[in-house]
Amino acid sequence: MRFHLRQQTAAAHAQLDEAVGQFQSVEQYSRYCRALLRFRAPLEDAVASAMPNGMDGWRFLPVSHLLRDDLSDLGEPGPHAHDPYPYDLDEARLLGVLYVLEGSSLGAQLLVKQAALLGLSEHNGARHLASQTSDPKRWPAFVKILESNGAASTGDVARGAVDAFAAAVQAFHHDR
């Protein structure tokens, strides 16, 4: 399933990587945090509403509240109001969305290093990145759930992931 999703979302993922780019200044990092909050806040709300009670001991880890703290550290209060995520999340699409959100922890491993070069840390401005990279077992645990639960509705899982990538790209193009 994971490899199928990687293939199905490759173009959308490439678009997002291009939209995110790299940040080489605190101003660019602030823009990144604003866009990420614009993307994650509505999606995390939708995920919280759609999450089943049990996923084999695995729990979703939201970071929007940490992004707000990071923006506050940078002197930029983030928006607290947002439009709801525009797609319904049934179980299959939820898995696709979680694939994108959890997969972002892999990219965060690179971004946390870039943030450190700007003098940002888990105590100042990069809390969300520190949280995403704090537990290397999260991604493998999620992949196990994805592999055991997503096979019956592969197309819907992929649609959920593609929709989430599209929402992220839109959020990152908002300020440009």
How does this model look, in words?
The protein starts with a helix and ends with a helix. The longest helix is centred in the middle third of the chain and has 27 residues, at 91-117. It has helices at 2-8, 10-20, 26-50, 64-73, 91-117, 127-133, 138-149, 154-173. The chain contains 8 helices and no strands. The protein is mainly α and 176 residues long. It is globular and about 45 Å long.
In short:
With 176 residues, the protein is mainly alpha-helical. Helix content is 68%, strand content 0%.
Radius of gyration: 16 Å
Approximately how much helix is present in the residues?
A: 55-70%
First-residue to last-residue Cα separation: 34 Å
Q: Could you tell me the number of beta strands?
A: 0
> Structural class, please?
mainly alpha
Low-confidence stretches: none
Average pLDDT, to the nearest integer? 91
Sum up the overall morphology in one term.
globular
Strand content: under 5%
How many distinct helices? Answer: 8
The profile of the biggest β sheet is: none
- H/E element order: HHHHHHHH
Key traits:
176 residues; mainly alpha
Lay out the secondary structure:
Blueprint: H1 2-8, H2 10-20, H3 26-50, H4 64-73, H5 91-117, H6 127-133, H7 138-149, H8 154-173
